[in-house]
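Quick question, first post here. What does this chain look like in 3D?
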Amino acid sequence: MTASYHINRYSKDVKHLEIFLSDRSAQDHGTQIPQTALSLVLVHAQKECYHKSLRAVCSTPKKCGKVLKMEVLMSEMIQREGTVNLTEGTPIKQIIRFMLPLVLGDSFQLLYQLADSVIVGRSLGSSALAALGCSASFQALVFSFGIYLTGGFSVILAQRVGAGDREAVQNSFSACIRLSLIASLAITVALLVLTKPILVLLRIAPEIFDDAYRYVLILFCGSPFVFLYNMLSNALRSCGDSRSPLFFLIICSVTNIVLDYLCVVLMQAGVAGAAWATVFSQALSVLLCALFIRRYCVASKLFAPLPSGEIRAHLVCGIAQGLQHVYVEIGNILVQATANGLGTTVIGAVAAAQRIRGLNMLPLFCMSRAVSFYTAQNYGAGKRERIYPGIRATCLITVLTSGIMGFINYALGDRLLALLLVNAPEAVALAHTYLKFTGATLFLLGFMLIFLNAVQGCGGTKAPLLCGIGEMLMSIITAFVLIPRLGFLGLCVANPLAWFVSLLPVYVAFTRSAARKLC
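> Answer (accepted):
Ran it through. Tokens below.
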């Protein structure tokens, strides 16, 4: 379409809107504006005329009133190109549309993690790869807490976006950013003191301890970037925009791969070079996301005074999600510490298998994250009857996806692992066995994640905490009973058992909510 068409279309829309408002002014003075009036401007206005038409509407306060201005700004946020309105349309179609950018974004993240492993493994050897993987559970504990803490904050934000309350959205966004900044700085300071003692408790082999400590310490210095990026990207996703964070992740991933090659291969900076490459790319993604939000997001007043109880509401939801994953990762740390006693070969095998396992889990995690935002928006909008059909459809997709991933693990797992474990047939065989157990039980993880995120999207906190505690208890049993008695086989069954136990409380909580018509 030509620019002249848009200008004519824009002029007609504003004229129709002014006529409509003048007819309504005698009755309610413009304080009750039906959606049909907004659609005259918002549906047809495009490209450069889109923002022009919005400015024109907001420049006539006598006719539009404060309520209309609020609704127009909310519509700008929800209807901006690239966003998905999760409160309208076929549930599974909207969830998949929202999920696809998440899958692509997380795929690029895993690709640069795999590239990191390939570059380090081929350039520095299997001992360097073991240095990267021996503290994986400790890294996951820290970063998972940050990711899910900010994810809990964004649940409140998504509920308010669904409700269409712009002022509440503004307050929620401000609270999210403040809490994320404070939490990230406090955790970084604590990590600078606690990292070395915790690595000692993990019983890392002396020959790789120095490399492992150097690598983890540098990563933790960049932890504020992880917190802030996840908060900013979740703020966009809460508004239905999962596409924009994808672009930032692509740039971050490509930058990380290039810097890995420069630092590790050309500059020969060792595992520390790989860590610095990761930190720099994460900082770049935060910068890009912040600039984008400043340009397009209506929630711009970060440090305005907040209503009483605003911080507490976000903390309750955020801490519940963060603690749930802390419990999970504490259990994983215990399993990791026990596994580290099985030898360097097993450590390298598990580290490589977990890289491939991440590809298996990727669509399941992305599906569950989409369910979280879908549930939160519909819960906030009062459209709770839409939640159950979306959950049922995603469960069916989970079964199909898990079957495909299990077949790939069985048929191609050894070939993929050979790319990471060069000239190490024994390690490849062990890692392939680990992947077979993972592939056969992935559906349990998928169901657990879907019901967990559905309950969290509705604001539930008790069942997710029980979920995390159950998984931690199974990890403790694995660390102190199964691995000492079964060895590597006990390590293989650790995750499937934990997934099954943690599924039970969130499934019961969701079904009870559905029976009470809360979902």
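The radius of gyration is 25 Å.
The mean pLDDT is 75.
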